[in-house]
Amino acid sequence: MKLQVVIHPAEEGGFWAEIPAFAGCVSEGETLEETLSNVKEAAEGWLEVAAEN
Predict the structure, then answer these.
(1) pTM of the shown model
(2) Is the model's pLDDT at 22 over the cut of 90?
(3) Neighbouring C-beta atoms of residue 27, cutoff 10 Å
(4) DSSP string over the chain
């Protein structure tokens, strides 16, 4: 599954990312790589919760 991920610079440094198709699915990280890894994990969690409901 391919999803659009929008990455933003964080005011305090690092980055934060959101997946617009998944309401409230956001994460952050110090580097782009960490941010992408974290948002992937957040998306997996989001999908698990959605499947339970």
Answers:
(1) 0.90
(2) yes
(3) 21
(4) -----EEEE-TTSSEEEE-TTSTT-EEEESSHHHHHHHHHHHHHHHHHHHHH-
